[in-house]
Each structure stands twice: as C-alpha cells, then as structure tokens.
Hints:
Protein-Tyrosine Phosphatase, Chain A, Rossmann fold, UDP-N-acetylmuramoyl-L-alanine:D-glutamate ligase
Amino acid sequence: MTHSVHALESLGRVHFIGIGGVGMSAVARIMVASGVPVSGSDAKDLPVMHDLAAAGARINVGYDAGHLGDAQTVVAGSAIRDDNAELAAARQAGLPVLHRSEALAATMAGHKVVTVAGTHGKSTTTSMVAVLLKEAGFDPTFAIGANVPSLGVNAARGTSDIFVAEADESDGSFLNYRPLIAVVTNVEADHLDHYGTAEAVFASFDAFAALLPPEGLLLACADDAGARALAERTAASGTARVLTYGTTNDAGIRLEDDGTGNVSIAVDGASHAVHLQVPGRHNALNAAAAFGVALELGVDPVAAAAALGHFTGASRRFEFKGEGRGVRVYDDYAHHPTEVRAALSAAKSVAGDNKVHVLFQPHLFSRTREFAAEFAGALDLADTALVLDIYPAREDPIPGVTSALIADKLSRGRLVSAADAVSALVSGARDGDVVLTVGAGDVTAYGPAIVEALDG
C-alpha cells in the first residue's frame, strides 16, 4: 500500500473501475461535484451508477478496455482482480492507478479533515458525525462506507471546510489521510489476512495517530482496551492532543447510559441529555465520539445533543427490514465477534422479554479459522442461532475451514442450508420476537424474504 497524497487538479480525467461499490461511488460523487471529469464501470448495473450518470459521470456496465477512453488517472476498487481488462489496459498504457483511499485523500485538500477509524463502529460513527454537523448547520463534505438513510446518500460535497470520512484499517489504506481530528472507536486483532499479527494491527494504529499535527486531536474510546492503550501511547509521545470518551470515570467525555436509548454526555462539568433512535451501548459510545468531534469543531453542545436525536442509523447497521406476525426483522453487517456480540445485545434490548433468533453468515475463511470460538460465544447470546456456509468474498477456500467450526460450539444453534434458512427461522419466531440477519456477505438478502414469509 502506497502512502502518498495527490493534488486533485493533477489527476485530470479520472476513471473508476468498480464504480458501483459503496466506497468507490462515494469518492466518485465528491469528484463529480468538485468538477472533475469522471467515468466509470462496474460488472453490474447498480442504482448508484444512475445517480452518478445523472450528475455528469460517463458510466458503462461491464468491463472493457475501451471504457477507459481518454482517462488520465485510474482508481481501482479493492475487489478488482489483476486480470481485469480495464486495469490491464491502464497499466499497459502507463496510467497512474490509485487505491480508493488515495483518490479520496486527493479530494480532502484544503479541508479540516475528520477521520473515523477502528475495528468496528466506523460507518455508524462517521454517519453520526456527518448527520450531527449537517443538523447543526456546519454543512460538511462526507464519505462513508455505507448508505445513510438520514442523509439519503453515502457521500456528498458540502459547503463548509469540514471533511468527514470513514478510514479503513483493513488494508492499511487509512494511512493515506492527513486528519486534523482522528477518532478511534476500538483497536482489536482483525484483518490478519493483511497484517499477519495482532502486533502489526496495533502498530498501524500508532502510525495512524502519528499522522495528526501538533494542534490535532486523537479522540479514543476509553471503554476499549486497544483504543485506550493507543491514547496512552500517543499522549506519552506528545505528538498530538488526546481526549478519551466512554463510561469510565476518567473519560474526558463521560457517557451515562441506562440501556433504554436515554443517555447523557458530560463534558467540563455540564451534562447533556441525548435521546438516541438507535439501540445498544455501542451506539451510545459512537454518539459520545460524534459529540466530541462536534465540540472540537465549535458546535454548541446543546445543539450537538439535539442533533444526535435525528440520527436513524446507517444502512446494514441494525437496519429494520420489516415486520410480520408481530415479529420484527433487522439486518446487521457485523462480521467480527465483537460486532456480533454488540448487534445481539442491541437485539435483546429491543426484544425485551421475547426471544432473539439470528441467521449468521461467516465472512472469510481466514476470519472463521481465527475466531470460531469467539463467534460461537457471541452467537450464544441468541435464543436460536442458525449458521450459513462461509461467504468467501476475496478468499479461496482453506482446507478444513467450514461453518461447522462455529456451529459445533453452539449451545442453541446449528448449521442451516441456504434453501432451508428462511423456513427454519420463521417456524420458531413468535409475536414480539426479533429476527436478526448478520454478516458482511449476501445474508442481507434474507431479511425481505423472512418478512414476506412471516406475512404469508
């Protein structure tokens, strides 16, 4: 991964390979709105591509070397393989090929940049910051790795000098940004297919914090051991200011959460009530982080607290899919044990005395191998846990690694086939129960089918 910053005006005409992806389309949206000539292609004809075409981008469905046209710079999505016809043609022509993060960094010049990093909670926290700032009249440019219903889009060019972006640590690309404020929600061992060791993950977050200028701010979660340790190391190095948030007594921004969505955030001796529309302690912590960012940027704390009440969630983050027979169905992108545990805790708070039924699809063979026991422990929070086959994403199968590694450790769960999943969930759900589909793969498609079956 290169760590270089390109000037936006130096890119010329930019072609996106895989422009329909949520992260790629975010960068393309901002570039089009900034007056950059943009073209792009994707294997599928996706709704976002129609939005981009309407905004002025030249869009093609399918991959063909001819789609490059007169492009002067190419941006390739992380899912694009080396043998892609457009990527091969770009390299043959000697065109610069940028990672999505490098292209995004080019659009940040001249802004006060807020980046949100962490193993979990990035999209939701970035969304909260963007919604809060927008509601408070600080119209930011933002780029988020999920669609945000309260904003209507995953990215937009704002009128202020503030730029809010999700910073992805999965491949080290978050080191391409130059933040003024860096939020770190948590630091855990993950993405070991890229980093190899937990130590390498922690070292990358140290490098991320070191990108801050002396007047910059690291805002880290005191409730998370990894983020707290990062805050302590950064404070000791004296490279930037450090502020923590959380439920601990020593947190600079102190959260009080009764578990019902009514939280208060105390700063400098003053307490501010916040009425959140999204459940779970993890979301209350995300709100405290967003509150901290807002104060640093000069938002009035009373306005910040009121604005957080307008946040209705990010797409695929405990997203309500519908209801049938009194059973509520939600979908969540959780794909690490900590995220699964948080999603199920939120589901239990919504279900109350009723039951929670989960359909889980493991994501990546390597992650399943590393965390099988932890996934099983998290899934056992549910009353019923059904486990689908592993979604391979970018990986080839690993011998001996199947979903059975998780299912065999469950006390109230089992493997289920794609064909039987919907009927198995529906048959066990009763009025008042919650059904949750969980995973980063195509398990999200099951939600509407479950609602339809419940209504049937």
